[in-house]
Amino acid sequence: MHGARPPTRHRYERVAHANTNRKRDARRRPKDYFLQQLVGKGVRVDPKPLSFKNPDSKITCVALKYRTTDELPEMYDKPLLKLMYEGSLEEIREKVAPESRVANAQNANGETVLMKCCRRALYTTSRSPLAVVSLLLKSGADPMVCCDSGKNVLHDLFWSAKPPPPDVLEAMETMVDMLHESTGKEGLLELMLSEDKHGYTPLDYVVPEQQPNWRKVVDTVVAWAASDAEHDEAFSCVTGPPGSQGSSQTLSERVVSNLELVTEAGSTVADFMRDMEPADVRVVAQLCARRCSFLVSDCSDPDAAIIAVSPAFVDRTGYEPEDVLGRNCRFLQGPGTSVQQVDRIRRALATRSTADVSLLNYRKDGTTFTNRFLLTPLRAAGQVRYYVGIQNCPDVIADDRRRNVARLRREGIDAGGWIDDEDEPSTSAKRGAPSSPAAPDAKRRKEGCAIC
Ligand SMILES: Cc1cc2nc3c(=O)[nH]c(=O)nc-3n(C[C@H](O)[C@H](O)[C@H](O)COP(=O)(O)O)c2cc1C
């Protein structure tokens, strides 16, 4: 060691420079992977680099967004951050009420309280930091802003994401999901691809070897982006563009007149859509737009009698609305229907959970079909009010529901469980796997079945 000459300043600089280049190349990998995946799935991406400096960008620097000092959001201080980190959800809800503009509070560098809370949610394992992020977004926190150096909420998120993987991954996925919900696909892609003042996108801050989570999160975003394109088109058929029928209309009011459903005499689609949670309105609208076969029942009915039928159900099963309305749907089952799967459905109903099962059903003419069935609760005014049962549910809807359950749980809302056939794969077909007939089961569990 004694004989070794200390490196000259010049040498240090060269080494530092080489390291920077190496790091920069490694960092580019996640972003290149993301772009390749998007293009591979047919998602159109603007080839121009996105940056807050670009006038077409929807991302604005906080300092530039507000023209007058009156418009500027609150500055956050230590007591406000302490409240966000340690306060109860009730206290925070009161503080960030939309008219207070606290949800958009920022510091002198334009870093927002949303960025701070997202970062913290990666390191604190309890649910409340995620619930705070959700509350901020619902109270008007704008995720499409960046700080003075061009970093947006995702720069912070990817930069901070370090193992341990399961917790961090779950928190990252949750937050990306919340942002997706708040900004839509376009906004999320823009956040993912927007460069800061050094020319780095959020993914460029990932150190792939240290943060194995990035690929999972990127794959999730790519899948949303690909399915959303299809989804958006179908959805706009039943909703019309926002504000097209009067901006004061709620989403549920906008979709009601466009939904094709047959309801019980004396009730209307508007009745059961009243006060329904937006995520649930969206599911019903998607199902109608995609011409899915589904039924709706009222939870207050002890025998889950059907109150609405989609036209596709009539086409697929041969049962007319008058055969179905006011009855329980167990008449679709028959001798070959798996008892275990029906048991799962029963359990889901009893615990206000979602059931995602595959079982043998019978059409009116006695022919059979394998029903990839999804039964999921719908909420109105915070309570589970209805159940929708979807025959041969498309994966995209099932995935959407799974995310919704996760989101409700994070918000501390009792979302019930997710009951599927994962635990006993041999008894039934899994979603996405080729279908196989359910095991024959001669014994009917229930008297009064229409088939046997
Ligand atoms: C809205 C709704 C739709 C349903 N659709 C189906 C269906 O398509 N196929 C099926 O086998 N069971 C379906 N079911 C389940 C049965 O109606 C019933 O709940 C299940 O057989 C368990 O209850 P049971 O033990 O009283 O028969 C549906 C239930 C509800 C609430």
UniProtKB/TrEMBL annotation:
Residues 416-452 are annotated as: Disordered. Residues 441-452 have a biased composition (Basic and acidic residues). GO terms for cellular component: nucleus. The keyword Transferase does not apply. CDD domains: PAS (cd00130). Keywords: Chromophore, Flavoprotein, FMN. Residues 301-328 form the PAS domain. Pfam families: PAS_9. Transmembrane segments: none annotated. NCBIfam families: sensory_box. PANTHER family: PROTEIN TWIN LOV 1. This is PAS domain-containing protein. It comes from Pelagomonas calceolata.
